Amino acid sequence: MNRHGAAPAVSVVGLGPGDSDYLIARARRLIDQCAVLVGSPRQLDCFPDFAGEKRPLGALAELAGWLAQQGERAVVVLASGDPLLYGIGDYLSRRLAPGRLQIVPGISAAQYLFSRLALSMNDVYLASSHGRAPDFDFLLMHPKVAMVTDDRIGPYEIARQILIRGLRRTMIIGENLSYPDERIHRLSPAQVAPHYAMNVVVILDER
Questions:
Q1: pTM, whole model, 2 decimals?
Q2: CATH entry 3.30.1490.20 includes domain 110-204
Q3: 63-70 contacts at long range (C-beta below 8 A, 24 or more positions apart)
Q4: What is the pLDDT of residues 62-120, one digit of tens each?
Q5: Exposed e or buried b per residue across 70-98, where buried means at least 16 C-beta atoms within 10 angstroms of its C-beta
Q6: Residues 138-156: pLDDT tens digits?
Q7: Positions of CATH 3.30.950.10 in the chain
Q8: Which residues make up the CATH 3.40.1010.10 domain(s) of the chain?
């Protein structure tokens, strides 16, 4: 809430892992009521009946500047998974004035995968390879790691790093999580294929 008691004009809304069944009720209400919906083409396509303005996401610096100029217009920025788990929420929270922004959490793809495995997250180390080079020596010290991947460092590269170090690990690869073509693979690093669809990887030390 801002100093006048009204809700902030800009909302960053987590979409969850993909399927709209995992969108929380507050997120759905904000989307239904906003004047402008901002997101990637794939995210915007999830809301074919939205009656307001749709705006492509574009460069983040440009988005932050545009949001600052919107006054009291209700704007929802769509985020995959949870906005504060290696998402756009952190970026915008550091660039918009206090009281201007609210963040509505979503179910992350990592949370979804752990739920499908009935595997505890109490001791998991969460990481991402999006736009960054992971420190594999540090990561592989942990007995349980969940990593959101990108096209550059995905399951095959992770498996290669495990094999280079001569470690024994189990890799669980969740592809297209929550979508009809979802697939979950439990493999040794030597069994990992070169290519997978959109995925999250869990690395387990099961010794």
A1: 0.86
A2: no
A3: 63/38, 63/92, 64/91, 64/92, 64/95, 64/96, 67/10, 67/92, 67/96, 67/100, 68/96, 68/97, 68/100, 70/9, 70/10, 70/36
A4: 999 999 999 899 999 999 999 999 889 999 999 988 788 999 999 999 999 999 999 99
A5: eeeebbbbbbbbbbbbbbbbeebbebbee
A6: 999 999 999 999 888 999 9
A7: 110-204
A8: 10-107
